[in-house]
Amino acid sequence: MNFREQYENYRRFFEETLSDFCGGMNFFPPVLGESMRYSLSSGGKRLRPVLFSAALDLLGADYKKEGALAVAIECIHTYSLIHDDLPAMDDDDFRRGNPSNHKVFGEANAILAGDALLTYAFEIVLREVGRGEAYRRAGEELARAAGPSGMVAGQSADLFYSANGAGERELSYIHRNKTAKLIAAPLVMAAMLAGRAEEEMRTFGEALGMLFQLTDDILDGTDGESETEKQKLTAVHVFGLRGAEDRAKACAEACTKALHTVDGDREFFESLVEFIRSRDH
C-alpha cells in the first residue's frame, strides 16, 4: 500500500467515526448542533487524527479501538479554526472553500460553536479515562497542547507580536505553541496508549509541527498575499523566503533523525515528512 492509499485508509476510518458522533449532536437549540456539525464536517486533510491512527499503528496498538480520542482531537482543532476565522482574529470569510462558520451562523453562534466543540472534546476524553492511567495521561497531554501552555498561548503571542514586532525567538515561540504542540499531541498520546517511544514521538512531532507551519508560511509568501495576509507575522516576513526555506529543510532533517530512533515500520511517516515539505497547498 502506498502512502496516499494508507493516508486515505486512516482518513476514511476517521470520517466514519466522526459521522457517528455528529449523528448524536442533537443539542438544543438546534442551531448549536448544526453549527458544530457544519464546521466538523467541512473536510480537510484530517492531519491530526490521521497522525494519531498512524502512530498507534506504528507502535503496535489498534487504532480502530481509539476512534473517540481521534474525534476529540479534531473537535479541538475545529474549534480553533472557527475562532481563528472570526473578525476579531484573522477575519476570514471562507474556510476550505466554504463560508466560515460566522458567515453562516453569525458571529455569536460561531463563538458558541467553538466553545461547545472545545468542551465536548473533553467530555469525550473523560469518558475514555476509565480505561486506564494511560488515557488520563493522554487527556492531560491534549489539554496542555490546546490550552494556555500550548495553542492558546501561541494565538495570544501571535496577536501581541503581530502588533508589536517580533524576531526569531518570538516567532519560534508562536510556531511551537500555536501549531507544533497540537500536531505533536496526537503522536505523544498514541505513544502513551501504546506504552513506548513517548519522548521519541514528541521530538518527531514537534519538528513535524514546525515544518508544517514553515511550509504554510512559505506557501503564503509565494502565492501572492491579500492585504490581511501581509499583516500576519510569518517566517517569510522575519527571515525572508530563502531563510524560511532553509529552516524548513532543517526541520525536515530533524524529523527524519527523530524517526530513526523509533522501532517499527516508519515508511508512512517518512513519506508524510516529504509530503508536508513538498506540498503546494
Structure description:
The protein is mainly alpha-helical and 281 residues long. It has a single domain, classed as Farnesyl Diphosphate Synthase, CATH 1.10.600.10. It contains 13 helices and 2 strands, in the order ααααββααααααααα. A two-stranded antiparallel sheet has the order 1-2. Helix 8 packs antiparallel against helix 9 (168-194).
Compute the number of helices: 13
CATH class equals Mainly Alpha
Distance between the termini: 24 Å
CATH architectural group: Orthogonal Bundle
CATH topology: Farnesyl Diphosphate Synthase
Secondary-structure topology with pairs:
Blueprint: H1 3-23, H2 30-40, H3 47-58, H4 67-84, E1 94-95, E2 98-99, H5 101-105, H6 107-129, H7 133-146, H8 151-164, H9 168-194, H10 198-222, H11 227-230, H12 235-259, H13 267-278
Antiparallel strand pairs: 1-2
